[in-house]
Specification:
Blueprint lengths: L1 E8 L3 H17 L3 E4 L16 E5 H9 L3 H4 L3 E4 L1 E6 L5 E5 H4 L5 E5 H11 L5 E4 L4 E7 L2 E6 L4 E9 L6 H5 L4 E17 L6 E6 L5 E5 L5 E8 H9 L2 H12 L6 E4 L3 E10 L3 E2 L2 E3 L5 E2 L7 H18 L7 H30 L3 H16 L1 H11 L9
Helix pairs in contact: 1-5, 1-9, 9-10, 11-12
EC number: 1.14.13.-
Cofactor: FAD
Protein name: 2-octaprenyl-6-methoxyphenyl hydroxylase
């Protein structure tokens, strides 16, 4: 039976980011980290029109700069220079600009496969090892850690187990960690779009009576579409032929990017706000979508998880204790409590506010958008939230 100091269950973007944030300090301390992941990372990045992507906030860029990987990530990171927020059929709009905020970009859109490749290649195999493809089927708490049973019946013991295996974590359920689940009664339709006109780094957030949509700039003048609709309507849209789908999307979005010429593969995801009722136990931490899964329209989910991962790494490395000490994990949880509460609340309230078709609510949000464009302090606050800096007074 082998033993490591930290076992990270889930080697996706959150798990790999945590390993990267830990590895320099872990090497100095002689710690060993194991990443356990069911899907083998690709050895070479392959371009794909249909690649899924993530919106990285400006705050995420700062974290990856600190970890020494931003220069590589930035080779295929499309900067968001402006954000255009509108309510379909209403008079008000709001515009956020990187220039006004004094930053090179409000955020960046990066293909997940490229981001993952950059992270995996930066890991030091003297500190971070892989069990891949492999899956943890059972977790048993021990006096000084956890015993993990893998799907090949081998076992591994660790001082600290980090659960980062996604929003449908079976291990979270196995451990008896409860969740708060608030369905939005919507599904997100995700696809890549090519417009006839250059996007010039403009991101669009457009709210309609049928649900919000976002178009985010990608390399090669593609745009990442996130379109939320009621469940049956989302299924109808996903089943349309390409021409009919583009025609319906054009009618809702308009012609700010000219004619929408091409759409890639469409994917549907049911949406809910999911929060784990516990994020730390002795020798256990829960990260990523296993800890909190947010509505994608505000683009805050991965960025919050990345801040969590960096904060957990800092807490572990700033302590003289071995990984898994409950007091250290509790201190991490307290440090992130406000960031999580504000980010989850911001994402949830924006989603619910703009999902309502009630006349008074509609009037209120239009006045709010108008005020956002006219009142610099309100606009500054909103921009900092969008950039992932809302709870960081030092930036």
């Amino acid at each position: 039976m082998s033993r490591v100091n930290l076992a990270i269950i889930g080697g996706g973007l959150v798990g790999a980011s945590l390993a990267l944030a830990l590895q320099a300090g872990a090497k100095a301390r002689g710690w060993k980290i194991m990443l356990i992941e069911p899907f083998a990372p690709g050895h070479a990045w392959q371009p794909s029109y249909d690649a899924r992507s993530s919106a990285l906030s400006y705050g995420a860029r700062q974290i990856y700069q600190r970890l020494g990987v931003w220069q590589e990530i930035s080779r295929r990171a499309e900067p968001i220079k402006q954000i255009h927020v509108s309510d379909r059929g209403r008079f008000s709009t709001a515009r956020l600009s990187a220039m006004e905020e004094g930053v090179p970009a409000l955020g960046y859109v990066v293909e997940n496969a490229w981001l993952g490749q950059c992270l995996w290649q930066a890991l030091d195999n003297e500190v971070v090892s892989w069990r891949c493809p492999a899956q943890v089927t059972r977790m048993e708490p021990l006096v000084g850690g956890y015993r993990l049973t893998l799907d090949d019946e081998t076992t591994l013991e660790c001082d600290l187990a980090v659960l980062a295996d996604g929003g449908r974590s079976g291990l979270r359920e196995q451990l008896g960690v409860g969740v708060r689940n608030r369905p939005y009664d919507q599904s997100a339709l995700i696809a890549n779009i090519t417009p006839s006109e250059a996007h010039n780094g403009m991101a669009f957030e457009r709210f309609t009576d049928d649900g919000p949509m976002a178009l985010l700039p990608l390399p090669e003048n593609r745009c990442a579409l996130v379109w939320t609709r009621q469940g049956m309507d989302a299924q109808r849209l996903a089943a349309l032929d390409e021409r009919s789908f583009l025609s319906e999307l054009q009618g809702v979005f308009g012609y700010r990017l000219g004619t929408l010429k091409q759409v890639g593969v469409r994917h549907l995801y049911p949406l809910a706000l999911v929060e784990a009722e516990e994020q730390v136990r002795p020798h256990l931490a829960i990260l990523g979508n296993a800890a909190h899964s947010l509505h994608p329209i505000a683009g805050q989910g991965f960025n919050l998880s990345l801040r969590d991962a960096q904060a957990l790494a800092d807490a572990l490395l700033d302590s003289e204790s071995e990984p898994g000490d409950f007091a250290v994990l509790q201190a991490y949880r307290e440090r992130q409590r406000m960031d999580q509460a504000l980010t989850v609340g911001f994402s949830d309230q924006v989603t619910r506010l703009f999902a309502s078709s009630l006349p008074l609510v509609s009037l209120g949000r239009n006045l709010g958008l108008l005020g956002l464009d006219l009142l610099p302090p309100a606009k500054r606050w909103f921009a900092r939230q969008a950039m992932g800096l809302g709870t960081r007074p030092d930036v």
